[in-house]
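Most newcomers find our protein records easier to grasp once they have seen one. Sequence and backbone structure share a record, each on its own labelled line. Nothing more is needed to start thinking about how sequence determines fold. As an example, a complete record with its sequence and its structure tokens follows.
=====
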Amino acid sequence: MLSASLLRVPVVLGPLAAALAALPAGGMAQAARAAGELDVVRVTGERERSYTSQTVQVGTFRDQDPLDVPLTNNVVTREVLDAQGSRTVFGALRNTAGVTRSQLSGSTYDNISIRGLLVENRGNYRLNGSLPVINLIDIPMENKERVEVLKGASSLYYGFVPPSGIVNFVTRRAGREPVTSIAASVNDHGAVDLHADVGRRFGPGEDMGLRVNTVAGKEELGIDRHQGERQLLSAAYDWRVVRGFNLKLDIEHYRKDVSEQAAIEVPRVAGRAVTPRLPANTTNAAGEWQRYDAQATNVLLRGDLALGDAWMLTLETGRAVAERDRRYSFFRYGNLATGEGTLNISFVNGQRYENTAHRVDLNGRLETGTIVHDLTVGASYGQRESYFGDSAPSASVPQNIYDPRPVPPMHPVIATRGGRNRIVDQGLYAFDRMTLSPQWQLMAGVRYSDYRSENVTAAGAVTPYETTDTSPNVSVLFKPAETLSVYASYLEGLEETGTASANYANAGETLPPAVNKQKELGVKWRSAHGALLQAAVFDIRRPQTTRDAANRFVVGGKSRYQGLELSASGELGRHWSVIASALWLDAQILRSSTAAEVGKTPENTPKRTFSLFGEYRVPQVPGWSVNAGAYHVGKRPVNNANEAFVGGYTTFSAGTRYTTRWAGTGVTLQANVDNLTDRTYWSSAGNNLLGVGLPRTVRVAAKFDF
């Protein structure tokens, strides 16, 4: 069982929030701290009342204007998250092009694909541009200032990661103005939660800041036999120790204990995959007792030391740990017409995943003749350890997917030890942004990687693997105007090719890494009102995994992803804000050990995705706004052979919020509806599994700013 201390989050909340709220309210920072000085603590605690951001905080582009980033990057700001009432990873990322769910329906956590490429749950999700957090439990949004997506290959800075992109979570920090807010929400299915957010700057000259967020709530999604709870406790601390030396510390601990909805196995008729009839969007073939009980702790410490006027040394160290007990199940069809079949249940306790990361960066500027060099030289060390848990023999019970029967509780003896895996990824890298003139920039970088992995079975058999390689990238950027940039980039990356899941004969085996290559041409423009518009065409070539004749998960070929991506985010005047995206994708398997896959579309990859969300601030009623959104995903193949497809779908959202003051207290009242038409649709495919989209959900909330 997981730590009982997490159940005391609401108890901890009162004294901690009260103590922090009692700290001096502070005020404006000292005027003597010029904005350009290296030793100023940068804070993002003030609410970005905008649908766009002026900077990104990911990879070698930290603190860069998006116009100067030669890759597609999207930022979902706090204002967007607030307007939509988003509290999950998918809720945030649905606003960016090419995002789909994969394998799972999202009732426990969000398995995400971008541009048809799976976002690896151990390496592609980052905290504050650095620590790889483990996306095997819903990552809370309440303590995040924004969510960033850097599309494409990112190996230069992050080592072995697939080219789907980096998802970066930027935490909320104490800003100039004190923050004390309490928020509560309920939905029409019976969920309820309470969120407290307290932030202060304090100490001599306001050199320290602390932001604490805590959440406790009951989970209900409208799915049959699904219920649970979640908690969050986080703290973001920063300290200007002396002039030229800053420290930042982030700690977050969260837990989720819910009933896990059963996945649906893709049925086969005469040896060929078929798409079954959709069950109701409230269907859960599993029992309420089948729990997904998980917790995660992330700790990241960063120090910035100014070395004169032009150089900065950054040191970072962090650790992310996730643990879970799981009663996972999937439904296997026996009769397509009636929906009769079997529910297959697995029992696992004590799965544990640990990421350790260390990094040192030296950043600075120098001039060689007329060329200005902005240099980054660094080294990183990452270690990932996995223990796949203790298990009991799986069980099967008769079930009907269209009219599920109660599943009696089972309590098998969990005594079989699992295997484990250890990966060490070390790298040295250098990146140079060369300003050739006010209009032209040339960027070049290279990373040397030393990768080692070791799989150990429960019986003690060891399978080691190690390799070294280099990853170059080069980009050129032209700015004919201050608000317009055009770029071309070429990148090579290294990626892990995955670990075989439980439904393969080589379950638990980690495959050797491989090289991916990406080309991109793009243009970015910032309007007079500050809205950011982007357009890019890209070509990605990467290794292709497949299932061989012996039902083994193997690297068996190569695939290509070509597409056109458009996005827009920001304000269209005083009263309108919008965030929109579109992707037209041509993905194809070029080579495969399975002949039937050649020339086909990789599984779970749509040719089109669109999203549009807009908010209108009603001028006749100050503080009142209304919003609406539409999200479209095209049809997707259920496997690499394209034997069957799940249909495309479009869902709609709507909402309204009203901000006012009552007796000197700021009050925000809000209502949001997701899946407005209560559509039933296949939300995910991949790995021979299907997931059904969640039903319509109405959520109302109130927030009080003291």
Notes: The chain has four helices and 39 strands. The radius of gyration is 25 Å.
